[in-house]
Amino acid sequence: MKLIRCHIENFGKLSDFTYDFSEGCNTICEENGWGKSTLASFLRVMLYGFRNEGKRDPLENERKRYAPWQKGVYGGELQFESDGKVYSVRRIFGNKAAEDEFQLTDARTHLPSSDFSQKLGEELFQIDGGSFERTIFISQNDCETFVTDGINAKIGNLAENTDDINNFETADKRLNDLLNSMSPSRKTGLLRQRKDRITELKTQIRNGQEIQNTMESIDARKKAAIEEREKLSAELTELQERQKKLGIYKDQQAKKEKYLDLRAKMAERQQTLKEAENYFNGVIPKGEELREKTAVCNQGISVRKAMEIYCLTEKEQAQLKDNFPMADNVRLEEKYAEAQELESLESATRKNALSGEESRRLEELSGYFAEGMPQEAEIDSVKNAWTNRNEGKSLLQAKEIQRKTLQSIQAQEDARCLREQEEAGKRKKILLLFGILLSLGGFVVILLGQGLIGGVLIVLGIAAVAAALLFTAGRSKVQTGENTELSYLEQEMEELEAQVRIEEGQIEDFCTRWGLREGLELTSWLVELQNKRRDYEALLERQKQDGSDEKIARIAALQKDLQQFFAEYGEVPETQNYLAALHELAGKCRQRQLLQEKQKKYLQQKQKYEAIEEQVKDYLMSLQLIPEEHPEEQLAELESHRKDYEKELQELWRSEQEIRAFEVKEDIPALLALKAPEGEESLESLADEMQVLSERMEECFQTIDSYQKQLSDLQESWDNVENMQEELKALQEKTEEGFKQYELLGMTKNLLEQAKSSFTAKYTEPVMQGFRKYYRILTGTECENYQMDANTRLQVIEGNMPRDIGYLSLGNRDLIGICMRLALVEAMYEEQKPFLILDDPFVNLDENRTKGAMRFLTEIAKEYQVIYFTCHGSRE
Amino acid sequence: MKIIHCADIHLDSRMSANLTREKARERRTELLTTFRKMVEYGAAHEVDAILIAGDLFDTKNVSATARNVVKDLIVGHPGIEFYYLQGNHDEGSFTGGLSQIPENLHLFDSKWTSFPLGKKVCITGVELNPENSGSVYNTLSLDADLVNIVVLHGQESEYSAKDKAEVIHLTALKNKGIDYLALGHIHGYKKERLDGRGVYCYPGCLEGRGFDECGEHGFVELSVDEAAGTVESRFVPFASRNLYTIPVDITGCVSTMEILERMKEETDAGNYPEKSLVKYELTGKVDVESEKETDFLLHQFSSRFYFVKIKDSSKYLVDYASFAKDVSLKGEFIRTVMGREDLSEEDKAAVIHYGLQALAGEEILDA
């Protein structure tokens, strides 16, 4: 491959610059500042692009550094040959890579070509930019070289295998980094950290073992406390047993005491009963009988009290002894009726008797009404007639005024009608005449042949005649109406006057009959007449009621009969108040009757009492007792003693029953043989002991609980220890695995390096041969002190020791570098040789070496197209 | 008559091996709740007795909550008789803290103790210890006319082992008239014939606690026909959550996404409930150049289940033949590694994987 032509539009200071390359060596010898390095850079940039685009420094950032000084299009064109084909690549650079333009064309056809992409350098030379600058491109002051992965890959024909030797350095670095990160010796190393953690965990776990000991110790104490609690529990059980036994003894003892007490009480009851029995004289009254006799005795007391009540006083006895005649009730009732009738008759007589004034009045009225007496209705009728007559008179006066008014209106109306009739007669005649004429006219017109007009005229004529006739009729009708009203009024007045006359006739007859005095007002007279009539009737009635003969006779008969009745008792009443006298007599009779009854009852009670007294005495005698003055007290005392006796008897029976029940229920012989348990303990002392034990047990519970809590806390701590143990175990496993990985990784690194050395060693010798060849050309001497290690690193033997060429002088380093580059290029490109770009690489060589360099140029130009830049003719 | 046989409930178990502290606490609560629900199940199904064949508690130091809940459940269900045989974990942990043993709680000790239940059932048990483990078998005497349920806690064994308290000598228990040997200690359900008359049964734990206790857990419900003298038993799954280990063969997978697909297939096929605790175990061989990221895989399933864990047990497969004549650094590297006779095949595979991952710019370590 070779360069044919380049054209720079603008690149750094170069502008519109064209250069045609030839075969062999193309020497561009220009002064400093001409732009040689810029041109060399242009060639490199056209192949590999800019370096250090990310740098800010314009000197390091090539895109900025080579920006056109004079502005214009930034870029250019490069024509080259590869595999017999000529291509033209054109690149225009923008401010950034994304703005760059790239165009590859076939130089012969001028058609775009896709044989290479923008990565033109890599594809053309099969090495990266770095490797290009270490081999094909030798820049000023950078002649030294070293073997990159790209160079190795190219030499080993592995340039296209991306995961192989070209990645060795990266892989080696990553392995190294990984080993460092895992390092067991570095502080930051994972394995070192794990080891430290393991040590820490072991220490903590070792310390934690003490927890286990403590737990065992506490557990032992807890067990001892549990044993103690169980022991106390057993003691408590025993005490409870003893308490139970003692309780049973106490119960039995109480029962024994109760039994003995029962027996003692029974004996006491028997004694009391005997004493109660002694009161009676061998005969114990039966309760029912005694109660019966007591009741009888009590009845006797009641009877005695009744006797006392019915016993007559001396005065009463004297009363009973006189011969007072007793009146029976029927007769007394009869006399009562008579006395009442008498009183009633006498009272009526007293009430109806007329006074002197009344008698005179009666006499006067009898004279007044000697001819008869007007009826009440008659007087009322005259009163009404008088009222009607007065009203009729008043109405007549009013109607008279109305008649006069109507007569006046009638006179006026008649005069007006007369005038109107005259005028109306005239109009009627005219209208009648007009109608007749119109009708006649109509006939004439009909006759003349105008039927319709003639008909109309006849109709109008008839209408006019009819109107004249109707007008006359209306006027006559009005006149008739007014006359009727007046005649009605006059007729009414006539009827009213006739009625008034009738009324006046009736009044006049009445006044004439009953003598109305002249000058007396009619109405007042009628009232006076009415009063007189009523007085007369009342007086007549009273006179009629007062003092008939039958009545007087009856009064006398009754008085006589009653006087005879009272005469029987020698007590005729002076005041003739028979009713009161009868009351008094009836009282006396009743009093006597009561005394008799009292006397009778007394005798009855006395008999009864004597019978009772006898019965009680007999009873007491039957009880061997001497009856005393008050047998009721004797009987009460007897009852009291009998009750006491009965009660005692009952108590004794109850005691006996109780004892019998007790004897059935309990084992009496065993109770009587009961002995106190040994020892002097009491239930109280046992309870105290149990209390103490319970308290101790409670303490034990608390102690156990406390141990339990401690154990729980310790268990938590122990759980942590166990967690640490688990962590330790897991960590140890991981660490062991990590160490294994670390070891294998170390081995991987070594074996990979070993493989790399082994792999590169295969082309070390050909490279070394090339080096020797170019060294000889350049220096004219054989290369003896240099050797190449397996990593293709050149070393110089100084003092029998291989040393890095960095120890050599700058000139020697450049010389060796140039030789090494050529040796590598030779090894890399066995078939198609690349062009070489040498940017004044011999500047540091001395004069002799410079001559050798010229030979070197001549020699390599035989095989390679060389683009050589220099600024000095000596190196041209 | 109905009886519940349970064992190895391990209340107060820490369960922090896999779980976070919060989830471990939640699981402890769930364990206690499941025990409560089991007792309530018993009450609802008119169960006469509950046999607890050891390890009711996980530690000697029982928490106050667990102790009170268990005590209150026993006292609160006077219609159920509780027969509690202590195991190797809970020796004295519960009863030592009680001031009074509830009337319906029956305890065993180091000598055979029998409790009659109903008219024809006899429950007999002994707590094994180094002193009595050799002699208990000779002293067991049962009435053949009764339905005999024997309770023990220990590891089943056909042969007796000297001084090993927790070994149950099954041979010595044959032909003793046992109808049902209620055992505890093994954490998975197991029921086998003991002899011509009876069976022995481990109900397993009530809730799985770790991935060594995968699958369904619960208790055994016995139906005793007293008239016929027969015992029928059935396992009742009762755990609130189950644990599952899902093996996923990732052979042939070359990327994390392919492994994810394989895991999804296995998960869907198993139809595991969301509340489960799941451990994926990646097995098989994957190409040494394959890529797998277990953190990513874990994240994909973490929201699907209550708890997820991934164990990568897969191996790398190196196709040596393809690199035998490869002129490249890789080929050279693989040949160099394979030439190291001091390395095991597994280590070689690992080294090759690391090297290739490094060259490819991928994560060198899987997780």
Automatic annotation (TrEMBL), chain A:
GO molecular-function term, one example from the UniProt record: ATP hydrolysis activity
Protein name: Endonuclease GajA/Old nuclease/RecF-like AAA domain-containing protein
Stored Pfam families: AAA_15
Keywords for the protein's UniProt record, in alphabetical order: Coiled coil, Membrane, Transmembrane, Transmembrane helix
Coiled-coil annotated residue ranges, if any: 215-242, 479-546, 592-658, 683-741
Organism: Waltera intestinalis
Annotated Endonuclease GajA/Old nuclease/RecF-like AAA domain residues: 1-295
Recorded superkingdom: Bacteria
Stored SUPFAM superfamilies: P-loop containing nucleoside triphosphate hydrolases
Transmembrane segments: 430-449, 455-473
GO biological process terms on file: double-strand break repair
Record InterPro entries: AAA_GajA/Old/RecF-like, P-loop_NTPase
Automatic annotation (TrEMBL), chain B:
Domain of life: Bacteria
Ranges of residues in domain Calcineurin-like phosphoesterase: 1-189
InterPro entries xref list: Calcineurin-like_PHP, DNA_Repair-Maintenance_Comp, Metallo-depent_PP-like, Mre11_N
Keyword Chloroplast: no
Gene Ontology MF annotations: exonuclease activity
Keyword terms, alphabetized: Exonuclease, Hydrolase, Nuclease
The keyword Hydrolase is assigned to this record: yes
CDD domains hit by this protein: MPP_Mre11_N (cd00840)
Pfam family, one: Metallophos
Protein name according to UniProt: DNA repair exonuclease
Organism, as annotated: Waltera intestinalis
